[in-house]
């Protein structure tokens, strides 16, 4: 049997699948970094979500560590370079939570353009702000999707149902059967889109892919949605664009600093034209069940292959 530790919770169904496989001796408890390092000696399979940072010192402490499983899409919380150097395999579950994130992105957009959060809060405070909460339709507007992987495609399907025109930028996608105009030039999207939503991983190439110069190339009054990763958008540049009116509104599920309690993020969240959620894009019961089960199946497959060697 392999020693498996789930440092972040997986769904009940996923844990039952791992247990019933007979391949694992399992513990499930969240340790902070220092405590995790102390407990790495005998762990062979480490399972995490986004909360655990699998840094080089965590990996080096795992003398028996063979596999890191990331239940989710992004790998920015795992030092994949060190893992490769140490011969540790890293697996994730791309696409399993795509519907959850796509639905949140569209929900954020609708909430922003129809002033749903302010309207709700106003009513709770005894206000009736009907005259000042005139919003906008998204029908007929051009949606720019930056990153056209599994999540970007799910966003496009739903946006098409709202009657939006859709343009997508992704240098790795050559064609699609969806009603989407693909472009290999980011500036083409920036100049045409009324709404821009980001759905790409955080890497050295994508860090601050949207900054001062990109905002300058956008339409006046553009809307920004980020339910991907903090750090993709330069948040100081976003703040400046919101203050100037270049960006009419932003809806954010992720931040470069999480929780967003530093001065810049507090100023950003203090703006009337910003709405936000605390990194909940993948946090649905259905999405986490899919993610967990897919992760469990991958780990069982890997354990089966290792057992047969």
TrEMBL record:
GO molecular function: NAD binding; oxidoreductase activity, acting on the CH-OH group of donors, NAD or NADP as acceptor
Domain D-isomer specific 2-hydroxyacid dehydrogenase catalytic: 8-305
Keywords recorded for this protein, A-Z: NAD, Oxidoreductase
D-isomer specific 2-hydroxyacid dehydrogenase NAD-binding domain sequence ranges: 106-281
Domain of life: Bacteria
Pfam families: 2-Hacid_dh, 2-Hacid_dh_C
InterPro entries named among the record's database cross-references: D-isomer_2_OHA_DH_cat_dom (IPR006139), D-isomer_DH_CS (IPR029753), D-isomer_DH_CS1 (IPR029752), D-isomer_DH_NAD-bd (IPR006140), NAD(P)-bd_dom_sf (IPR036291)
Family indicated by similarity: Belongs to the D-isomer specific 2-hydroxyacid dehydrogenase family.
The protein's name in its UniProt record: 3-phosphoglycerate dehydrogenase
């Amino acid at each position: 049997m392999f020693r498996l530790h789930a440092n972040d919770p997986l769904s009940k169904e996923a844990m039952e699948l791992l247990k019933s496989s007979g391949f694992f001796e399992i513990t499930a408890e969240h340790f902070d970094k220092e405590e995790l390092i102390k407990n790495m000696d005998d762990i062979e399979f480490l399972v995490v979500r986004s909360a655990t940072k699998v840094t080089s010192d965590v990996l080096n402490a795992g003398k028996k560590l063979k596999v890191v499983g990331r239940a989710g899409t992004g790998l920015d919380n795992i030092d994949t370079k060190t893992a490769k150097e140490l011969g540790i395999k890293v697996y994730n579950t791309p696409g399993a939570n795509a519907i959850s994130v796509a639905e949140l992105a569209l929900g954020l957009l609708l909430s922003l353009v129809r002033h749903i959060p302010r309207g709700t809060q106003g009513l709770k405070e005894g206000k009736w702000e009907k005259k000042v909460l005139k919003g906008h339709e998204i029908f007929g507007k051009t949606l720019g999707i930056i990153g056209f992987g599994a999540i970007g495609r799910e966003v496009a399907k739903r946006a098409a149902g709202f009657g939006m025109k859709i343009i997508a930028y992704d240098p790795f996608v050559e064609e699609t059967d969806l009603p989407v105009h693909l472009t290999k030039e980011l500036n083409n999207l920036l100049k045409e889109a009324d709404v821009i939503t980001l759905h790409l991983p955080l890497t050295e190439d994508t860090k601050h892919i949207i900054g001062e110069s990109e905002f300058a190339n956008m339409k006046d009054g553009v809307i920004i949605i980020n339910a991907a990763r903090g750090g993709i958008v330069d948040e100081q540049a976003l703040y400046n664009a919101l203050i100037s009116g270049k960006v009419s509104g932003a809806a954010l599920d992720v931040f470069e600093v999480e929780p967003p309690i530093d001065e810049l993020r507090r100023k950003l969240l203090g703006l009337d034209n910003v709405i936000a959620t605390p990194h909940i894009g993948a946090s649905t019961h259905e999405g986490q069940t899919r993610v967990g089960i897919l992760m469990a199946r991958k780990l069982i497959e890997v354990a089966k292959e290792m057992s047969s060697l």
